[in-house]
Amino acid sequence: MIYYSMTTPTLPRLRRHLARGVALLAFSAAPVTAQVYSPVLTPAPGDSGVTIEVVRHPNGQLSKRVFRAAGQPNGLWQEWDSAGRVRMTAEWKNGRGEGVWMYFHPNGIVSERSWVANDVWHGPSEGWHANGQKAFEGTWRDGAKDGPFRYWDEAGAPRGPAAQFLHASDVPTPVLTEGWPTDFNVWDINVSRDLETLFIGTGSDGGTHRRIMIRRWRQGAWQPVELAPFADTSAAEGTPVVSPDGEWVYFSSARHAAREPNNPHRDLYRASRASGWKTVERVTNTPRYGEITLSLALNGRGVLWTDHRRDGSANMGLYEVRMVRQTASATPPRLDIIADLTTLHRGDTSGEAYPVLAPDGSFLLFSNYDVDGQRTLEDMFISTRTRFGWSPPKRLGNGGNTAENDTPSQLLADGRTLLFTSSRAKGARVYSVTLKEILPKD
């Protein structure tokens, strides 16, 4: 995956960075059939201690053949249906999956070919429809999808999350307009690294009943909205943000308030991908001001959005932070504030909000309203890191901002696609756009 240069880009250079593509693994374009796969058996059938397990269907057709060494699967594992057609082949080593695993349509076309290492999916994975048309391709890493998978229908048309999110238009385009409950508010959105889990902050128009919901891409379609696995319905929660490595989703919650009466503010929490987004850690405990969310760069620097400023004043705050890992591995990291960003804009009545930090930390997107007393609704701005600090913010253009509320949500790992929410059209709250197209022109 290609991320930004660590040097400080000017806006023209930033456009060039964003124009760079993503290096893709080479996959097979043509359909793979049963005849092209010739595995090397380890150990060989004649080796000492090697047995061959054979199982047959009631009609006598071969059902399964497994090579074993010392009683453990070792080498080739094959299965057939009752008509004698191959269903799957797999490779094992010392009782664990290791090598290429393949599944077949009844006509012999491979439905899936994936690599396995140490008994988990690890490496390239691809599949075909029964008519030979490519169905999907992507890469697994240690049992998790390592970035987006690409999907196609039987006619070869792109489909799925990557087609919706990553093929961003040069003008803001609504995405995921279908399947939302009636009058459902989409306030904050972030998507997992594989683009197949969407985290949504929602609530009433007045800000009550703050909840975090999810939508999952499963079985070839976006499923209905459901409560996030880490959600606590007894507390106000919101603003989920996925870390750039995809391992955590950070969010704010007041789930502690019932047992901590002196801390009514929401604090920062995080849930881990490895736990299926179920295991939650508390990151901050700040009764004076409280947090809303955190946007991180890959180097551990981040931008923290708070619901009050550190001095306890009513305006929201924005602070650059450094994530410090604690000595005890089970202890959540500590956030050290290293710079005050609350004065990127002066004279505004709200405060900077909705930070989106570039993966290399070279630039920052955020929203603000009523800047310079212009009585505007929320607009999106960009500030670039320089050796002297952060540059004066510039308003995004070319349809990125409108007379309605426009707030940045997430810069995707392709390094070019910005997701943002907007109230410009009722019922279409989530938009994608190629970021370089809406950068300020000067």
Integer-rounded radius of gyration: 25 Å
Distance between the termini: 29 Å
| CATH architecture assignment name of the largest domain | 6 Propeller
The residue ranges in which pLDDT falls below 50 over 5 or more consecutive positions are 1-9, 14-25
How many domains, as an integer?
2
Overall strand count: 34
Query: How many H/I helical runs?
Result: 3
Judged by helices, strands and strand pairing, the structural class is mainly beta
Give the CATH class of the largest domain: Mainly Beta
CATH fold group of the largest domain: Neuraminidase
The proportion of strand residues reads 35-45%
Q: Helicity, in percent?
A: under 10%
Question: Care to describe what's here?
Answer:
The structure is a single chain. With 442 residues, this protein is mainly β. It folds into 2 domains: 34-146, Outer Surface Protein A, domain 3, CATH 3.90.930.1; 171-438, Neuraminidase, CATH 2.120.10. It has helices spanning 11-19, 161-165, 435-438; strands at residues 50-56, 62-69, 72-80, 86-93, 96-97, 99-104, 110-117, 120-128, 134-141, 144-145, 150-152, 158-159, 173-174, 188-191, 197-202, 211-218, 221-222, 226-227, 237-242, 248-253, 267-272, 280-282, 291-296, 301-306, 317-324, 334-340, 353-357, 363-368, 379-386, 389-390, 394-395, 406-411, 417-422, 430-434. Strands 1, 2, 3, 4, 5, 6, 7, 8, 9, 10, 11 and 12 form a 12-stranded antiparallel beta sheet that branches. Strands 14, 15, 16, 17 and 18 form a 5-stranded antiparallel beta sheet that branches. The longest helix is centred in the first third of the chain and has 9 residues, at 11-19. It is elongated and about 80 Å long.
